[in-house]
Design goal:
By secondary structure, the chain is mainly alpha-helical. The chain has a domain of 188 residues: Orthogonal Bundle (ABC transporter involved in vitamin B12 uptake, BtuC). Helix 4 runs antiparallel to helix 10 and helix 12 packs across helix 13. The termini are far apart.
């Protein structure tokens, strides 16, 4: 039996729902633009803001958002300048952020006893206040997507063509860099800095096995993401394992099963036509 009547479990389910919607909108853009490695770099670099927040006394989540956004803008700038290979730039910023975060966390008075929660997540600790902010941010992101759907899809699928059509490519790219950073921070409670990039990519990859249209990929990835959150929470409760790791593992298993089933169906179809 699940503790559905308890407040913490209800908050976890709602948090999973909002996080799934956020990652569906932002993650579909990230996957379509082939920016998953950049998202991973932003996520890991955000640890620098967490550590500095603990050391200097400001909000660690605010520091994480600032670090993630700055690293994203810096990676975009380096990509346009082509002064350094993208994978090298991501690795450098990724490790710089994590090294900075660990250093300041160690220097913080009394050390950061809640550092594991930022690294690995703790979805069962979501408060009502956090949930309200998450719901508000989710509503803003979904409304942004619905209002600018055509422009977003054009830029995500072919930015060069979108530029020839006079679309505000750089403005949308900057907005999505900021949204990606904020989404990463919003989902830290779910799975933590280490694994948050999976929420931005695995459900979208699963959805892409079944649909080709951008819109369909967004909404189907939200379904797969929420399914992984619910199943991961159940496993976490039944087997007393970390919820963040359980959510990610379930998401990857869903992708593997979906891919295997699709491959089997295609093979059977080819055999039947032979």
């Amino acid at each position: 039996m699940l503790p559905l009547e308890t407040t913490f479990f209800q908050h976890a389910l709602l948090g999973g729902l909002f996080a799934s919607l956020l990652c569906a909108v932002v993650g579909t853009y990230v996957v379509t633009r082939r920016m998953v490695i950049v998202g991973g770099g932003m996520a890991h670099a955000s640890l620098g803001g967490v550590g500095m927040g603990a050391y200097f006394g400001f909000s660690p989540l605010g520091g994480a958002a600032a670090f993630a956004a700055l690293s994203g803008f810096l990676l975009n700038w380096l990509g346009r300048k082509r002064s350094i290979r993208e994978d090298s730039a991501v690795a450098m910023i990724w490790t710089f952020g994590m090294a900075t975060g660990i250093l300041f966390a160690c220097l913080a008075p009394g050390f950061m006893t809640d550092l594991p929660a930022y690294l690995f997540g703790d979805i069962l600790s979501i408060s009502a206040t956090t949930l309200r902010w998450l719901a508000l941010f989710c509503a803003v992101v979904v409304a942004f997507y619905l209002l600018l759907r055509g422009t977003i899809v054009s830029i995500a699928c072919d930015r060069d063509f979108a530029r020839t059509q006079g679309l505000p490519v750089r403005t949308v790219e900057a907005l999505f860099t900021l949204l990606t950073a904020l989404t990463i921070v919003a989902c830290l409670h779910m799975v933590g800095i280490i694994m948050v990039v999976s929420l931005l990519s695995v459900p979208q990859l699963t959805a892409s096995l079944f649909v080709r249209r951008y819109d369909a990929m967004v909404w189907l990835s939200a379904v797969w993401g929420f399914a992984a959150c619910v199943a991961g929470l159940c496993l976490s409760y039944w087997f007393d394992v970390p919820s963040g790791a359980a959510i990610i593992l379930v998401g990857i298993v869903i992708y593997a099963l979906a891919r295997a089933i699709k491959s089997l169906c295609l093979s059977l179809r080819r055999i039947s036509k032979a």
